[in-house]
Specification:
Elements (H helix, E strand, L loop, with lengths): L9 H24 L6 H14 L3 E2 L11 E5 L2 E3 L14 E10 L2 E10 L5 H18 L8 H14 L3 E2 L5 E3 L6 E5 L17 E4 L2 E3 L5 E3 L6 E3 L5 E3 L2 E6 L2 E4 L21
Antiparallel strand pairs: 1-4, 2-4, 3-12, 4-5, 6-10, 7-8, 7-9, 9-14, 10-13, 11-12, 14-15
Helix pairs in contact: 1-2, 3-4
Length: 270
């Protein structure tokens, strides 16, 4: 423990990396299945089966009453979209898929936003900037820096490209619990703790970026968060560990190898 923050041993990180590989595999498979005519309910069923076959337990299902394995957030939905049979993907949509899994006593959490067929140029740009902003933040996860370095790098990158950052939703510590201290905002704020980064800290870093204004609202289902102005939102997330060798991304997908925006692909030992 470090002031309420849980430091992970190499054995802990190995367990988290095992969970991370399951999450990464699920996201990669779901991304390949996304197409016009597929429902978010279909995606949820495929995700549940994928996790179960690998001996993992969904982190989200049952958490505070959440009813599904994944969060599936379409277009103006920011996060926490509940999969439904009636939500059928259409050409030109974008969909954020968030997957969490527990394996060997530890959680991993990651998200991607995927185009459905051909999307507009502004949607494509939103996805590119949000994903790049995530990597800008991950690069700061070095011992001796402060958490604010992650937040500031994300904020600077997003706002320099003319997009807005959701303020009410933030990243988080992660480990044996899905949500641990500290909160990891995607912007610099005196309201949040700014701990010194130390070896063994693990975070879920997850920029949520809007095409329009940053304001959000929660739908009557009490889970789905959407943009108040109805414009598009994108969400990307990785679980990362602070190590002496630098940031160790525990949920890295195969498709991301070699395209890490200057961040070396470091994985925990098996």
């Amino acid at each position: 423990m470090a002031g309420g923050l849980v430091l992970k041993s190499e054995r802990d990180l190995a367990a988290m990396a095992a969970a991370g590989r399951v999450v990464a595999g699920a996201l990669q498979e779901l991304s390949q299945r996304i197409a016009p005519g597929v429902s978010t309910y279909d995606l949820d069923g495929w995700a549940f089966d994928f996790l179960r076959r690998r001996g993992a337990v969904p982190s989200f299902k049952g958490y505070r009453g959440y009813p599904a394995t994944i969060c599936a957030s379409v277009n103006e939905e920011v996060v926490h979209g509940i999969p439904r049979r009636s939500r059928v993907l259409q050409e030109g949509d974008i969909i954020g898929i968030d997957v969490g899994a527990r394996l060997r006593g530890f959680h991993a959490d990651a998200a991607v936003t995927v185009p459905v067929g051909r999307v507009s140029a502004e949607a494509e740009r939103l996805l590119e900037v949000t994903q790049a902003a995530l990597w800008q933040g991950l690069q700061q996860a070095e011992p001796g820096r402060h958490l604010r370095a992650i937040s500031g790098a994300i904020q600077l990158f997003v706002e320099s490209h003319g997009f807005s950052i959701v303020r009410e939703m933030v990243g988080h510590g992660i480990g044996r619990a899905m949500h641990e201290e500290p909160q990891v905002p995607n912007y610099v704020s005196a309201e949040h703790d700014d701990p010194l980064l130390r070896e063994g800290m693990t975070f879920a870093v997850e920029p949520m970026v809007n095409l329009g204004a940053p304001e959000i609202e929660v739908l009557p289902d009490r889970w789905t968060v959407r943009t108040r102005d109805g414009r598009l939102s994108a969400h990307f997330e990785h679980t990362v560990a602070v190590t002496r060798e630098g940031p160790r991304v525990l949920t890295l997908r195969e498709e991301e190898e070699g395209a890490l925006f200057g961040l070396s692909a470091r994985t925990a030992p098996p």
